[in-house]
Amino acid sequence: MTVREVAASAYREALPALAASVVGGLFAGAVLGGMRAELGDISGLLVLVPALLATRGNVYGSLGARLATGLHQGLLEPKIDLDDDRLRGAIAAALANGVLVSVLAAIATYAALTALGSNPASLLALVLIALLAGIMSGIALTVAVVSVVIVGFRRGLDPDTFVGPVVTTTGDFVGLAVLLLATRIVAAALGGI
Amino acid sequence: MPEHWTVRAITRATLPLLVVLSMVELGSGLVLGSVEDTLLASPSLLVLVPVTIGTAGNLGSVLAARLSTAVHLGTVSFEADDDALVGNAVATFALAASVFPAVGAGAWVTAELVAGSTRLSPLRVVLVATVAGVALAVLAVAVTLVATYVAYVRGLDPDDVVIPVVTNACDVLGVLVLVGVAAVLAP
Lengths: 193, 187
What we know:
The complex is a heterodimer of chains A (193) and B (187). Chain A has six helices and no strands. With 193 residues, chain A is an all-alpha fold. Chain A has one domain: Orthogonal Bundle (Tetracycline Repressor, domain 2), CATH 1.10.357.20. In chain A, helix 3 (45-73) packs antiparallel against helix 4 (85-115) and helix 5 (123-154) packs antiparallel against helix 6. Chain A is globular. The model of chain A has no long low-confidence stretch (mean pLDDT 91). The model of chain B has no long low-confidence stretch (mean pLDDT 87). Chain B has a single domain (17-185), classed as SLC41 divalent cation transporters, integral membrane domain (Tetracycline Repressor, domain 2, Orthogonal Bundle). Chain B has helices spanning 7-34, 36-41, 43-73, 83-115, 122-154, 158-185. In chain B, helix 3 (43-73) packs antiparallel against helix 6 (158-185), helix 4 (83-115) runs antiparallel to helix 5 (122-154) and helix 5 (122-154) packs antiparallel against helix 6. Chain B has 187 residues and is an all-alpha fold. Classes of the chains: A mainly alpha (193), B mainly alpha (187). At the A-B interface, helix 1, helix 2, helix 3, helix 4 and helix 6 of A face helix 1, helix 2, helix 3, helix 4 and helix 6 of B.
């Protein structure tokens, strides 16, 4: 193939997924734009955003890749059976790691901002927000990834080709919305932050 | 990848990289935090943050996936005149140049809807998004080529290594470039 043909085919194949992810990204942006009051009140929340979003992508992207490989290798039955030890192990590991890394990111954010002489919100508030957001988005992403990968495989599709965009798009729609919800719950529970 | 899918085995295989990546992302969070007042005052820039990060990461991951496949198929040579290499790089620039103006326009409309009056004109937001997007395409191509080449030379499976590295590097670069471009073009 000539350079022109390679470029044209790469462009055509990538554009639809990229355009869909832009729509998801703009939704995430709308939520972030709509939570300016919370971002202003809770110092450190904005600093935490990239780490939380990336952790979702990394943990549940890896869950999707693991399930896809397991299905290809025949290690996993293509059915949603929570009595299956492998499926249960993969899901439990993703949820545990996702929540653990989110909480670590909150602690590190607090430590970094304190070291830099900023005045972050309380450690308890940041940790609780990261914990709640991690649990809620973890459940939503697990349901999306497990069902889409297994159902797609059963219909003869290769999950490797769509698990990435599914995680990204679900993460965009769920990640920041859940962060806003978690922030409001924690603010209400702690009586303002 | 562990054959035994226990929480312990999976955690041992993935947790160290997850912690490192989240600390790198914390660095880009600190950059965002340093311009927090500007972002809160200009909702269109705040809206641009997640969509720029996501689009930059996707541009990188699409290129990385295509180059990984080319490596597996043996159809890429890492020479400057390699058609597969140059063609995919050209496609990445073309994708950035066509998607990011729409990202800018979409961000302005979104900010107008959720935040009411916006500080920046629509043209200014489109300009910021487009300049940042094209700069990010250059960086995404560079990072992907280096990461794929290193994986190839070391005999690592590019699928395992390159995609997470490229996606997270593009996330971080997305924040740095957006903040830098906004500081120059939309002070």
